[in-house]
Amino acid sequence: MSRFHSDSVTPASSVVGVKFDDGVMIAADTLVVYGNACRYQDVDRVMRINRNTILGGGRDFADVQAVVRTISHKIIEDHCFQDGHHLSPKSLHSWMTRLLYSRRNKRDKLDVDLVIGGMTPNNKPYLGYVDSRGTALTSDVVTTGFSRVLVEPLIRERQPRHRPFTYVEAVNALRECMKVLFYRDTRSIEYYTIGVCSRDECKIKGPFKAKTCWKIAELNTGF
Length: 223
What we know:
This protein is of the alpha+beta class. The chain has one domain: Aminohydrolase, N-terminal nucleophile (Ntn) domain (Glutamine Phosphoribosylpyrophosphate, subunit 1, domain 1). The protein is built from five helices and 13 strands. A hairpin with a 5-residue loop joins strand 8 and strand 9 (125-130). The protein starts with 10 loop residues before the first strand and ends in a 14-residue tail after the last strand. The mean pLDDT is 92.
């Protein structure tokens, strides 16, 4: 058995990613919990990896930071070759599945949920997910944690049947998701950031504040 403690000390909640017609978006709130306390409330859990890749991390944020450091070291190593090669989102996704699966087989797993998105070399949007066991998938909509059962159905319901989201539709869907998560998830706050990666830009926007209305609270009964 691993000599390391397996419980998360600083867990973080949901990450939500969607494709739109010209790129991908990943959103997450800025809260990292210490035990049951909302200790760190201004943490960027969506990160820009390079000019064509963004990453969102959930579960144990210390392990997320360890993963990001490993990626940073790889980027520096690749840069030393000066061959113009940049880590693509598909390559990063594939590498993370191997890394996390290997750590899990050594019984020293990294307790993370990662959402990886960006633009491929042929300018196609790419969005994938990988968990602490190395289980991976790609989809137009990717969610982690509580958002899998709470907000993914909301996004699927909003998703146009015969075309991808537009930029505005994707932003509005993510705003609604972050509002619902703040209402229903005890480990979520109203502040969140959105990473956008498209042909024209790759940046982290925010933090934004969810527009909430607590008049509905008096209608909640049975809890």
